[in-house]
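chain below, 509 aa
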Amino acid sequence: FIVALVLVPVLLPFVFAMTDISGGKGREAEPLLASKDKYVYDATAVAFVNTTENDVVLVKEVDGDGDGVGVHTVYKRRWYILLLVSLIGFTQGFIWNTYGPISTAIHPITHWSDGTIALFANWGCICFVIAFLPSAWIIQRGCRYAALSVTVLLVLSGGIRCVTMEMPATTYITHTALFFNGLAGPIAMSMPATISAIWFPMQERTLATGLGSIANYIGVALSFVAGPYLVPQSSDNDDDSSADKHLLTMELLWYIRGTTGVCVLLLIAVLIYFPNRPPKAPTTSASTQRTPFISGLKKLAKLGNFWVIATGYGIVTGVFTGWSAFLLPNLKNVITPATKAESESGWLGFYSTIAGCVIGILVSKLADVVRGYMKIMLLCLCLVACGFCTWFALICMGVAPMSLASIYVSVIAGGLCINGTISLFYEAVVEATYPLDEGTTVTAMITINNIGCFLFLFLPDVPHIGNKWMNWMLTGACAVAVICLLFFKEVYNRSSLDTGDVLVVAHSD
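prediction:
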């Protein structure tokens, strides 16, 4: 790991200079992961017909008279690229939530306070604001640059934690490591929208964005299960025996080494093959040059339609993220004893996140099949979420009948609806802001989410404020998202260009 930490930063500039191992100048010399099927897509008949043997899926656009008007190529290896991006997002989310689920178990060797654990998590929000502009620029510069940058940061985040487990050095090293992981967050969470735009055909874009986007949340959810399993809490957590402390230290070290190993494998995979873009574009919009970075930022700042939907997304998802972190104090008011509340809160967070990811995939696929209804889908999900969040708030106040089943239904259903909106928000804002770069737009929107989460996490430090306000704030966030969506002008600039409905896309403030 020490050798890797030394060599990676040294070799990185040379890797960037190479641009693409397999071809140079961002192009592939020969396709990898080749298959033997080739298809022609008739835009009029909407049917796939097997033709000759080759290694790509050829999408040929023809008009009603059968005259060719353009040829676009869709490579099957797009799923491999999406898998790598998803694994990067998964790993970044997993590392971000490493210490929260095992904070009690490792307390005998770390003696970290709740404030220290909270700061570990807050590095994600802080770094997102810091790294927003550089990350958006790197994504627009090229996906290979972005993938290399994020995997190097992940390797650094894991590698430096393997250097020592001695206190207090471990505390400072962990803060530094999670700072690196936080810097990787903007690219890890924003890149799926760019990958779907440049690699996938129009009828698969929303699904690809959904699959890539939810990976980060799945990583967070699985860390709640993997952490306590690999670093279990001792039956006597106050045992000061050196043997028990040594065993606990080794369990934590191997847990960190395991995640670091995954990061190294991801870096190797990106070095071997991860081009900036495919040799030929899958759609007309994918082959269109995006607005330059600085000009794009200026236009984005003036685009009222972006701020309407970005505000709705940032408030509802940011507040929900912060609220999820304080689910345990809420449950302690209605579930006794406290140990049972702690156990139930962990499983509630896990189930609601996984359920949200599943519904997110289903809704994304539905949006690809039934195009033009993203706003209606978002409104329905936010309205239903508002209802379930209100129910949970009334349970915590003692107004609505309390039972474990009602708590599970209200929390999981509310989280399911909110998490299910994420990919739809991404695709809706990208469609509305095209031809601005997808990475810039989505990164800016996720930054608003992190600002909302950071402000929410700051409020519990206010003395004598309690925690019942959290539930009503979540309900209000869902209501604000509904209001923002009502004012959002649903437009499909990118899809209209791909279908030939428009030839030039222009924005209006």
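The longest helix spans residues 338-369. The longest strand covers residues 68-74.
thats it, cya
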